[in-house]
Design a protein that fits this description.
This protein has 101 residues and is α/β, with parallel strands linked by helices. The protein is 43% helix and 12% strand. Helix 1 runs parallel beside helix 2. It is flat, with a radius of gyration of 14 Å. GO terms for molecular function: 4 iron, 4 sulfur cluster binding; FMN binding.
Length: 101
């Protein structure tokens, strides 16, 4: 989820900062996550899209994993609170289950 002004919520801010620090740290291999598969699901509101804050935290995590050579299972999925969440997540979850088999 995205918090105030596109920032990660407090409960994951440290994780996002640490991950992005690794992307820019010369001591961390740019292939550090090459054996890690990932898929990112972000929650937000399209009402903040014009301000550039729609699922920003999820996009930052997705970008950082990719920058460290993580193996993307699915494209970033953005879920808006302006529509039913279950109807948005279910097809993504089914694709993820297939990708994990």
């Amino acid at each position: 989820a995205t918090h105030t002004d596109g920032e990660p919520p407090p409960n994951c801010a440290h994780f996002v900062t640490l991950l992005e620090d690794h992307v820019h740290d010369f001591r961390v291999s740019q292939n550090a996550l090459e054996h890690v598969s990932f898929a990112v699901l972000g929650f937000g509101s399209t009402e903040y899209e014009a301000a550039g804050h729609y699922c920003t935290a999820a996009a930052r995590v997705d970008s950082a994993f990719a920058s460290l050579a993580g193996q993307r299972l699915l494209p970033l999925m953005r879920v808006t609170d302006t529509e039913d969440a279950a109807s948005q997540v279910l097809p993504w979850r089914e694709e993820l289950e297939t990708a994990l088999r």
